[in-house]
Design goal:
Aminopeptidase; alpha+beta; 8-stranded mixed beta sheet
Length: 162
């Protein structure tokens, strides 16, 4: 995936050189609390989050003001509730960069790219039911409730449709 520019952020493909950064983030309790519940080992970060699963999963670093501030990914073909031309996304903003509009800009920028440039017809997210901050955030980004699902626990399936 190419670099994508938003209003406040740039989304660039994650690479091997981001392994230390991502390992640090996935070892931070405010991050891993909602990404599996425990620190993610370096080997797992390398396997899953630096771009080794392309093209099925596109891993991107969110940058603002020239600095990395978060992680966002999009994926197709993993969920039974996705038809052809649909997929999902996940993201986090590092604690030091929260509440500055970077997350919203990253989410809206990637959704716009997937719907207009990639031709997707539907983009989903599946935040945990007890993650009220994430549920509120995704709704504020234009996602709408579809139904309850089981992910790695009770979750809500939200989507944006073209």
């Amino acid at each position: 995936m190419e670099t994508i520019r938003g209003t406040k952020v740039t989304l660039r493909p994650a690479s091997e050189s981001d392994l230390d950064l991502l390992t640090g983030w996935f070892s931070d309790p405010p991050i891993y609390e909602w990404w599996g519940g425990s620190p993610v080992r370096r080997e797992v970060v390398a396997e899953k989050y630096i771009g080794r699963r392309r093209p099925a999963v596109e891993s991107l670093i969110i940058e603002a003001e020239g600095q990395p501030v978060g992680y966002i990914q999009c994926h197709q073909g993993f969920q039974e509730y996705h038809d052809v031309g649909e997929g999902g996304m996940d993201m986090f903003v590092a604690p030091h960069a929260r509440r500055r509009g970077f997350g919203r800009d990253a989410a809206v920028t990637l959704v716009r790219h997937l719907l207009t440039e990639r031709g997707w017809s539907r983009v989903t997210v599946d935040p945990a039911k007890d993650n009220s901050r994430a549920l509120r955030f995704w709704r504020e980004c234009g996602f709408e409730y579809e139904r309850d699902i089981e992910s790695s626990g009770p979750a809500e399936l939200l989507s944006v449709v073209r």
